[in-house]
Fold these 3 entries.
Entry 1:
Amino acid sequence: MTAHPTPGPTPPCPLAGRRVLVVEDEYFLADDIARALNRLGARIIGPFGDLGDATEIVDRDFAIDAAVVDVNLQSEMVFPLARLLRARNIPFVFTTGYDRNSIDSEFQGERVLGKPLDIAAMARELTHMIK
């Protein structure tokens, strides 16, 4: 007779219950981000592919724990949204297919993830930011 170890409690998902705003205008990438974060327990807000729609949600004082923000949405730079997130103390990561020089000087200290996006690295970064 062999003994089978009793499984311990399932560790909580690292982003369980956290509300993550996803701002990305590339449909398939936005879907990949949302699915990956959802698997980690996050509650997804969005995804939003339009700067105005994303800004409206943040302006509404909607409860947001963190955000993933594409630097360029439909040829618009997202720095006004980033300022609003910063003013509300909402941690965020930028995603971009451009080099770091495309980031406004006031945001040079923010975390920037290049595209193609490493979804696992993004999830780790968010988990670290909101703990």
Note: Residues 19-123 form a domain with the Rossmann fold fold (CATH 3.40.50.2300).
Entry 2:
Amino acid sequence: MMAALAAVEVILVFGGVVLFIWRLQYTFPDFAAILLTAILMTFVIHRDRLADLGLGSRGFLKATKSLAVPTLVIASILIAVAPAGLLTLVKLEGFGKYFAWCLLQEFTLQSFFASRLLLVLKDPKRTAWINAAMFAAVHIPNPVLIPVTLLGGYVLTRVFISTRNLMPLALAQAVVGSLLAVALPASWHHGLRVGPGYYG
């Protein structure tokens, strides 16, 4: 029963996210608050604990250790290819705001989608791939972010399932995303925009 409910929740919320990105953010921006409220309500219905949602201290060190090396390797590559001087564009204040945005994304992607998909599929690997594919899908048509979110989404979902902590995931996403924005030509990623905004 709960697995069937979880499947319906995933379909409806994912559809709502896609609809918001491609249309409602321009015509009904408050729909984002409705989506978030619906997600929070599912946590009550499923009686999810804060620790299960990745909001406690549980698994923090394990997640940090799992992500430290790959994040540093990717960051080093992006720093190496970045044009001289552009890294100064990564400001502390801007990074803090971007980290908060990444935390919200990981909260939605992991606490909601990964948790519900795992309840349905009962398989961490399949859950991670489907979660990653959904994450990549909401980044269409950005040619940089689609492959990055597919691979990154898989890794981050596997780490979340095994550690249940969001903070290191959001930090890794924020570091890589911030460096991507300045290391690669803006003509490739259009300021990391997705949906119709990519063309704007």
Note: The mean pLDDT is 95.
Entry 3:
Amino acid sequence: MAQVRNVRPGYVVIHPNRDKAICKLTKLIVVALLIASVVLMMILTIGGWSKLQGMKPVNFVWSGVYLVLAFYILRWARGLLPIAAALAILLLIIAVIAGFGLDGTSWFDRNHHGFAAAQSLFGGAGLSTDVLGSITLLLIPVEIALIVFAMIGFAQGWNVELEVPEDEARRRGSKPIALGPSSATA
């Protein structure tokens, strides 16, 4: 059930931190990093389809979750930033193991004699193990940046609300929250 907000007549609720350029930039960077992560995961999934061991459905679900997070973060959902950072930490661990893995778990270890080439999702030849390994290593700095920027965004207080007179909200250039009939009585 939605919260009922009682605002004094002649006043509106604004989010002053959302109007700051640094907050807008942080939001866009987080969304771009989430989308970049999805693109890299899909390249790895499609290009190395035959060599993924049980991670195929997880990659699709993870990508879907990242896209949903990106959509809601683009709409200023500050509470999803720690979830994005936590998922990025998990993906970072997986990427480090797959990129630098010990005892044959790295993509780079799979181009020795005796390993078959990866097949694509669509049945053709997949990407080479060197390309798959490089994309996996590229995922590492992307996830580190996602963790950092998600936590910076969380600290910016996108959720801070102020109740100010309507003329001050107009002077600030803020977009007031539509509150329904209770705010229209002013």
Note: The chain has five helices and two strands.
